[in-house]
Design a protein that fits this description.
Strand content: under 5%
Helix content: over 70%
Low-confidence stretches: 286-323
Mean pLDDT: 78
């Protein structure tokens, strides 16, 4: 009877030990599969012209980074389950941590490209560009410093992967570096998206409230807002957990999911707008009637703009022609 009890206790202890790792694997597998599917759709809807754009290439690079992160997360947690006494090397674990915390800088920079579209460097004075981009540039530099110290402080005294995992759990609660990073990330995103949406509203105000152009601008507004809201919710949830939860399991899972949600949001916007360009290229009508180019507004093939006084969105870029 005692042997059965001991066996049950050993099984329960093993299940409890691998439960966090299993949660990571399940979430990582599901979101990696979704991201890969969206990547295939993005490539299928892309045109020769869209593939030349910097935003499209940044999207592909972001997808590669997210999938690489997924591979590292899968290897580390899979190894912890099947061979808990012989985990991955410390260098691989540190690389995996870096692949989680550094790529959001790139994802947020893709969103910042919208401001470059509203303020083209060729038509905007240097003083104006400095006023607009000085703050996000300084914030991103600060984030790089914070993330570097975060990884260094958590790994400098570790000799084995087991010690690294334990140190990560010990310093999670109210870690000043994590709090600083997520606060800066929220500030960075709020600045970029708020300025973009404000300028979108101001430039759309002179347009008439009928026809296809206002509907198009309204759709740009909603998609841009959604790209900001969902990552913002996760950032706030991460801050709440790091301030209140002593265990990093739930918070770490949210950090992983937030990476995928951010990439999928940026890429989803690119896919959503790519269907417009694909329809124009293949001379196919859009089934929902949205984003249809009025016949009287010719499309300029050199720049991808669609007419004077109209806002054009390709990928995550919004361009406005002077009236």
């Amino acid at each position: 009877m005692s042997s059965v009890t001991n066996s049950d206790a050993a099984i329960n202890a093993f299940v409890n030990a691998i439960h966090p790792n299993l949660n990571y694997i399940v979430a990582n597998t599901a979101f990696s599969a979704c991201l890969f599917t969206l990547a295939v759709v993005l490539l299928a809807l892309s045109t020769k012209e869209s593939r030349r754009r910097v935003v499209f290439r940044l999207n592909l690079f972001a997808i590669c980074l997210a999938l690489t992160m997924g591979i590292f997360v899968g290897l580390i947690n899979g190894k912890a389950i099947v061979d808990p006494f012989n985990q991955v090397s410390t260098s691989m674990f540190i690389t995996a941590v870096a692949s989680i915390y550094f790529p959001p800088l790139l994802y947020d920079s893709i969103l910042l490209c919208r401001l470059l579209a509203l303020y083209p460097p060729a038509r905007t004075s240097l003083v104006t560009l400095l006023k607009i981009f000085a703050f996000p540039f300084c914030v991103k530099c600060a984030r790089v410093v914070v993330i570097t110290f975060l990884i260094y402080e958590n790994s400098k005294a570790a000799t084995t992967t087991e010690v690294l995992v334990q140190d990560e759990a010990n310093v999670w609660f109210r870690d000043p570096w994590l709090i600083a990073e997520w606060t800066l990330q929220i500030s960075d995103n709020m600045y970029s998206v708020s300025l973009f949406l404000y300028n979108l509203h101001v430039r759309a105000r002179p347009l008439k409230s009928k026809g296809g152009i206002p509907n198009r601008i309204r759709q740009v507004f909603y998609v841009s807002l959604a790209n900001f809201i969902f990552p913002l919710v996760f950032d706030i949830a991460q801050l709440i957990l790091v301030l209140t939860d002593h265990s990093p399991n739930t918070g770490g899972l949210l950090v992983l999911i937030n990476n995928y949600v951010t990439v999928m949001g940026v890429m989803g916007a690119t896919i959503w707008f790519s269907r417009l360009e694909w329809a124009y290229t293949h001379k196919e009508p859009l089934s929902d009637g949205m984003l249809r180019r009025p016949p009287e507004l010719p499309m300029a093939p050199a720049s991808g703009w669609m007419g004077r006084g109209e806002m054009v969105v390709i990928g995550t870029r919004a361009l406005t022609l002077d009236p």
